[in-house]
Amino acid sequence: MAINGPIPVDFGAVFPHGAYVIGEVVPEVDFDSSTKENRVQKRDKTSGLPVWQVPVMDADPDARKGQREVTVKVIADVQPVPPETVASLPFRPVEFTDMTVTPYVDTNGARPRQAFSLRASGLRKPSGGKMATGPAGKDQAAKDAA
C-alpha cells in the first residue's frame, strides 16, 4: 500500500463543527526513557521535536459518548499557547494546523477497536476570528460575506 505513516487531513474534516481546548497543554511523557525521578518529554520520531498534548472537545452535537473528548498531539519546538477564551464561553475555540491522522487498533478494553491518533504542527484561533460551528455557523458566515 502506498500510504505509510500519518495521513494529512484538513482540520474541517476532523472537526466540522469546531473544537474547544478543555485543559492545559502539557508535555507528553516518554515512559520508555523516564524514571521516577526524571520525567523525559517524548520527541517525534521523524522531526525530533518535542510532543505536546492538548485535550480537546469535539463540538459535534452528534458525537457519541467517549468520542467527544480527544487528545491532539502537537509537534512543536516550544509549548503551544491556546487561543484566548471568548466571552460567555467556558472553553477556548481552537483550530489546528497541518493535521495528520494515524489509524491504529486499540487493544485496551474488552475487545479491539479501530482508533485514531491526531497530530498537528500548531494551534490557533479559528480562521477569520470566528468560531468553527456547524451548518448554522456556515450560513452566518455566508451572510457576513455577502
Could you provide a short overview of the structure?
With 146 residues, the protein is mainly beta. The chain has helices spanning 11-14, 135-145; strands at 7-8, 19-21, 26-27, 51-58, 69-75, 92-97, 100-106, 113-120, 122-124.
Describe the structure in your own words.
The protein is mainly β. The chain has one domain. Helices cover 10% and strands 32% of the residues. The protein has two helices and nine strands; from the N terminus they run E-H-E-E-E-E-E-E-E-E-H. Strands 1, 2, 3, 4, 5, 6, 7, 8 and 9 form a nine-stranded mixed β-sheet that branches. A hairpin with a 6-residue loop joins strand 7 (100-106) and strand 8 (113-120). The longest helix has 11 residues, at 135-145. The model is unreliable at 129-146 (pLDDT under 50).
Q: Which secondary structure elements does this structure contain, and how are they paired or packed?
A:
Layout: E1 7-8, H1 11-14, E2 19-21, E3 26-27, E4 51-58, E5 69-75, E6 92-97, E7 100-106, E8 113-120, E9 122-124, H2 135-145
Parallel strand pairs: 5-8
Antiparallel strand pairs: 1-7, 2-4, 2-6, 3-4, 4-5, 6-9, 7-8
Write a concise keyword list for the protein shown above:
mainly beta; 146 residues; single chain; 32% strand; 9-stranded mixed beta sheet; Plasmid replication, integration and excision activator
